[in-house]
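Methods: example folding runs. The two proteins below were folded one after another, and each record is reproduced exactly as written to the output file, sequence line first and structure-token line second.
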Amino acid sequence: MSAYIVALIGSVLILLGIFELLRRRQLSEKYAVLWLVVGVTLLVVTIFPGLLGVLSRAAGVEIASNLLFFVAIVFLVGVALHLSWEVSRLEDETRKLAEDLAILRLDVDEHVKRTTSGPDGKS
């Protein structure tokens, strides 16, 4: 089996995996577009292997695979940065929700103490 066939099968499997994750609603729509672009780009580069050579010569990169690795690394660093931003935002939101819950719990406890005690403050 040639490398071309293996790459083509791999690209199609990646696209099918993305569609399956979308179908099962395990991949959010905001990330789905990004991964679909990656999957389609991989499929196009696989179908037209000369395209990567043309792009690498245009970018001034000697070896086409180096351009592919560079783009992949830049993409993955961008994804890691975005996910770090999302985690930071969610941690802040979780902290605020925990503070609001603590305040509400205190209010409920005080309300229960007032209602269970008699009008003179004795239970």
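Second run, written to the same file directly after the first:
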Amino acid sequence: MRDDLYQLDEAATDAVFQALASRERRRLLDLIRGNPGCIVADLLSAFEMSRIGVLKHLRVLEEADLVVSEKAGRERRLYVNTLPLRAIHRRWSDEFDDFWAGKLLDLKDKIEAGS
């Protein structure tokens, strides 16, 4: 899916921000991003919490669509889905990008007019 087609409604945006509000969940995202296709057992040694605790954090990340899983036999392979993060970044940064792009064009026009 093209990331410009990925849209988040307000409830989905809230879910992403709530998921990212936890240090443990951000750490899980980092670990999964660094080891795409890892399984839950690969993540357990990085945390001082029970398997159930890790699974609860993973469920929050999956509900926010930040982590997707793929069933491979009895295991679930985990992957980070960056589309929600890109959608949030695009929503909050596009108007600033437009502002600065306009300023750069103005500057370019002034420089070219002066030479």
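Comment on the second run: The first helix runs from residue 10 to 20.
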